[in-house]
Amino acid sequence: MKRILQYTLGITFSICLMVVLLFTSIEAAVYWIPGFFEKEYAKYNVTQDVSMTMEDLLDVTDEMMAYLRGDREDLHVETTMGGVRREFFNEREIAHMEDVKELFLGGLAIRRGCLIAMAVCLTGLFLLKAPVRKVLPRSVLAGTGAFFAASAAVAGIISTDFTRYFILFHHMFFNNDLWILDPATDMLINIVPEGFFRDTVFLIGAIYFFCVLLILVLCLFLMRKYRKNHK
Question: In the chain, how many H helices and how many E strands?
Fold first, then answer.
């Protein structure tokens, strides 16, 4: 019974770790990679679509991303478009971004909760006097493998028809139609077209895959080292 409890705590730790890595990969893709937005804007000729200089567009982007993290109170951002000084976002876009902000901050809250759960699991393992160097790598290997396999399956399904699942995502996470924007009147859809989201999702997947691969390699190394030291 004690052993089952130990491995239950270990697998719970590993699942929480995967959730933490997933949300961290999302944050890394859109916040930590220098020049990402500039590269995407150049790729999709966004500056031409919105009649802005790259510098002004990146300034608006910085304000938008600060808003999503709660570092800015509103999205009333003034800029120059086509030589005219105006607010970049209209009321519909602002209302939609309020929903996006709640979703993003909710993800960060889930990550914090998972970090706390991981700490609780580790504490439980030490209180149970479990052989952590044996239990944890095995548990993380099993939990990580299962979670990653499920994630890979979902990614494979999405890749077959990104547009379809992109729309499905919005129906699942938003209870209104504010996300349906008009390129003629709404600048948000012009600066982040579907191709931008596709590239971002693939980047998130690449970061996540790399992190998971490192963890799997580390677990295998620790398991091998543990067996070698206990022969």
Answer: 9, 2
Retrieve residue 198's tokens.
């596709």
- Per-residue model confidence (pLDDT) at position 231: 62
pLDDT in tens, 156-195: 888 899 999 999 999 999 999 999 999 999 999 999 999 9
34 sits in which H/E element: none
Position of tokens 């120059």? 80
Structure tokens at 150: 């499920």
Give the phi and the psi of residue 83 in degrees, each rounded to 5.
Answer: 80, 5
Q: Half-sphere exposure of residue 229, counting CA atoms within 13 Å on the CB side?
A: 8
User: 3-state SS of 168-224?
Assistant: HHHHHHCCCCCCCCCCCCCHHHHHCCHHHHHHHHHHHHHHHHHHHHHHHHHHHHHHH
Residues of the chain with pLDDT under 50: none
Which segments within the chain are labelled E, that is strand?
78-81, 84-87
pLDDT of the residue at 158 = 87
Q: What pTM did the predictor assign?
A: 0.91
At position 50, the amino acid (one-letter code) is V
Q: How far apart are CA 154 and CA 182, in angstroms?
A: 29
DSSP secondary structure code for residue 88 in this structure: S
- Burial 192-222, CB ≥16 within 10 A → b, else e: bbeebeebbbebbbebbeebbeebbeebeeb
